[in-house]
Amino acid sequence: MIEITDIQMDGVVIGVDVAKPELVFYADREKDLFTARNKSVDLQRTGKRLLKLKPRVVVFEASGGYEALAVRIFAELGLPVLLCTRSVYVSLCAAWVSWPKQTVSTHA
């Protein structure tokens, strides 16, 4: 996994909202919103879709373990994965809206 201070804000950033049955993905530069079931086959397919976007980072909010399968699959596919606490996730989301070309530096 990468560190928060390593994220350059150019390039595509993928935010992931995790729930038990499904994950919701948002690709900021693409303005693309889509969902995937929280099942291995669906996450493999989604990971391959995300690879085509060449994201700078795929950010997950820690969600009681529901994110674990997706984080593992995406990391195995070579996607840059960041798993963070809710407060950091919210800070990053605010930073992407306010400062899309800058480096985010925040502390949990």
Write a structural description.
With 108 residues, the chain is an alpha/beta fold. The chain has one domain: Nucleotidyltransferase, domain 5, CATH 3.30.420. It has helices at residues 40-53, 68-77, 86-98; strands at residues 13-18, 22-27, 32-37, 57-61, 81-84. The chain has a 5-stranded mixed β-sheet with strand order 3-2-1-4-5. The longest helix is centred in the middle third of the chain and has 14 residues, at 40-53. The relative contact order is 0.24. Residues 98-108 have low confidence and may be disordered.
Low-confidence parts, pLDDT < 50 over ≥5 residues?
98-108
| Tally of DSSP β-strands | 5
How far apart the termini lie comes to: 16 Å
Give the strand content: 25-35%
User: Which CATH-level-2 architecture?
Assistant: 2-Layer Sandwich
What's the name of the CATH homologous superfamily? Answer: Ribonuclease H-like superfamily/Ribonuclease H
What profile does the largest beta sheet have?
Answer: 5 strands, mixed
Instruction: Spell the H/E element sequence.
Output: EEEHEHEH
CATH top-level class: Alpha Beta
- What's the overall geometry? globular
